[in-house]
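A sample copied in:

***
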Amino acid sequence: MAPPTLYRPFMTGTYAVNAGLYRLGHQPIPWLDPPAPEHHTFTLDDTYPAFIASKAAAHQRAPHQYMGEAALTPNLREAALTHVACTLATNSAGLITWDGHTLRNGLLGWQATLHPRWNALDHLQRFPAPHAHLVQHLTPLHALDFLGLNMQEDLALIARDPHTQADWLAATHVLSPQHWDPRDKLGRNFTHVHAPIPGSAPMNATAPRLMDAVIDRGPFIRFAWGLSMTDRLDHHPAAPPDADRHPHTRFDPHHAYLRVERQTLTGFPDAHGALFTIRPLTHPLTQAVQTPHHAHALATAIRSMTPQQTEYKGLTHLQDDLLRWLDSRSLH
């Protein structure tokens, strides 16, 4: 498998909280060199074992902290989970297969028959495979859980009432959260979910139009980014602490990472909802910032953050040393 794609959303030189939607399969992604459209929802790359190991650890520790449902209709569940199974198989280049009933993973050495409408699975079977040891002690809880454990992406389902137009987060399977708790968001509407993000008010004001676009006119792709002082994937608030966002951690360019989230949104108008995928990608900062132009753009983007945004991103006590390092590598 190939290495993960390195996206650089910071190259705009501005940190912005907005929808930033690109039409999947049609609009070029400017963070690619050269810019080009992307067509896939799911990616299997050479970090696949690390993702599965991280998800397995989170699952064994406390699965209820990462996944749940809130008033999810059978119609939306069936539409979304069937789409996930089919698209995951299509995007896997034959490593994962789906025949409409059974999902089989030739990398992890397991397969199960899924019943997407009722979130059920049965006939879980295991067989020898290159990474079977990563899941040998896992027992998937339901169909969404099994699907989520086979991929590098996290999953969420957004629902909308066809009569009142009220929206809410109807399901989560988020095993790699970046310092947020999926339980805090479940059952909440778009505005509530994004309210803690400084600078999100203008985007939240457009929530009804965004929901229309996501459900009726997708699929879309978008990107979010930040910096981490470790490359750990799971930063659930209840997970064991590490150096990232620890008050005693100091900036070290050789222990810092660009963390980009590649997110896709696929609507199911007839089922009144949408699928939201989140794929974290972590790259050493020294790899992400390879040229003076990269360093200048990232420094400018960080300087564009408000103090509240700097704090939200966990950069307050790192910012001075980080900017000095970037400025030393920048264009003057």
Observations:
- The longest strand covers residues 257-268.
- The chain has one domain: 9-328.
